[in-house]
Design brief:
single chain; mainly beta; twelve-stranded antiparallel beta barrel; 21 strands; globular
């Protein structure tokens, strides 16, 4: 009987741990995430066990597609040790996060987005990399890397930096996103990057970035359900005082029949000199954007109606593109292949 009770306790403990973990830093290749804004500052609340997080009042901004690719030869040289590149593509911009997977341990080797480049190359052997830790991470995991360092370019400003990255699995509970009809059991991953900015040997400012990401441990896609990212940069000498928060919804939106209408859109590939946008439902007041993989807008039109098939005349060179159709009900992004 004692052995049976011990085995039962052990199994129950293992199941509990498995339900309160973040399985991977990498999601599903080609995942489409909704970028949203909120007029109010969201309170992420306390960490800990059996939490209840509810976030609402979001305004859709468009979609972001996340892809995972190997680094180019040039990127491997610029960001030594990189094994995977996370590429985020929207209608307005493309960003890249360079990462290194050493077994189960993940580190960030660089960031590159519009107007900002960060290279975590501050020391030999990758010791300047920002190390998150080993996945899966089980609550209450914590790891602090005190040796984060490298160089940065921010607009017309450049220099070096050093500081810390603290990664914690700081809580689990229920996440509610009423705007999207989502409610589920999640585990929260929190990261705080805090660095001092230098020009030559002189400190000129500070930068910090705090991220909260909520994951369903049982979701095999490993995509976050909700993520917020707050960036603060203060450098008085350069006239910089920035505080920006962005939000992303990874849970698939359920916003009634209007949203389902947008999800009915499909593109006939490959395309030639026209793009056929097909939908089994009528879509009114549609804005349409065609972008290349770097985020540059190639074509755009507004106030279109899609009823069956809409032909868009676009002259494209051979390659991969993204087309986004959006209206007051939301947006959808599809891939275009020009042969």
């Amino acid at each position: 009987m004692k052995i049976k009770l011990l085995l039962t306790l052990l199994i129950t403990t293992c199941i509990s741990l498995a339900q309160n973990q973040v399985n991977s830093f990498y999601g599903t290749n080609g995942s489409i995430i909704s970028a949203v804004a909120n007029p109010n500052t969201l309170n992420q609340g306390a960490g800990g066990v059996n939490q209840n997080w509810t976030f609402g009042g979001f305004v859709p901004l468009g979609n972001i597609t996340y892809t995972y690719v190997a680094p180019t030869i040039s990127e491997s040289s610029t960001y030594p040790g990189t094994t995977n590149v996370i590429v985020s593509t929207s209608t307005s911009a493309t960003g890249k996060m360079f990462t290194k997977a050493a077994g189960a341990t993940i580190s960030i080797t660089g960031l590159d987005s519009a107007g900002l480049n960060i290279n975590f190359n501050g020391d030999t052997g990758g010791s300047g990399n920002a190390t998150l830790g080993a996945f899966p991470m089980v609550y209450p995991f914590t790891n602090t890397d005190n040796n984060v360092s490298g160089n940065y370019v921010y607009g017309t400003n450049s220099g070096t930096f050093s500081g810390t990255l603290t990664t914690t699995v700081d809580g689990y509970g229920v996440l509610n996103l009423p705007d999207y009809g989502y409610s589920g059991n999640v585990t929260r991953l929190k990261t705080v990057l805090s660095v001092t900015l230098y020009l030559s040997i002189f400190p000129v400012g500070t930068a910090s970035q705090t991220t909260y990401a909520y994951y369903e441990p049982t979701d095999t896609s490993n995509n976050f359900k909700f993520r917020s990212l707050n960036t603060e940069v203060v450098a008085a000498a350069a006239g910089i005082n920035q505080n920006v928060t962005t939000y992303e919804i990874g849970a698939m939106p359920i916003m009634g029949n209007a949203q389902n209408t947008l999800q009915s859109v499909w593109i006939q590939n490959p395309v030639q000199n026209t793009i056929n946008i097909n939908s089994s439902n009528t879509i009114d007041n549609a804005a349409i954007y065609v972008t290349d993989i770097l985020g540059k807008t190639i074509y755009q039109t507004k106030n279109e109606s899609i009823n069956g098939t809409l032909e868009i005349p676009v002259s494209l060179t051979k390659g991969i593109y993204l087309i986004t159709i959006e209206n007051e009900n939301g947006s959808v992004t599809k891939k275009i292949v020009k042969s």
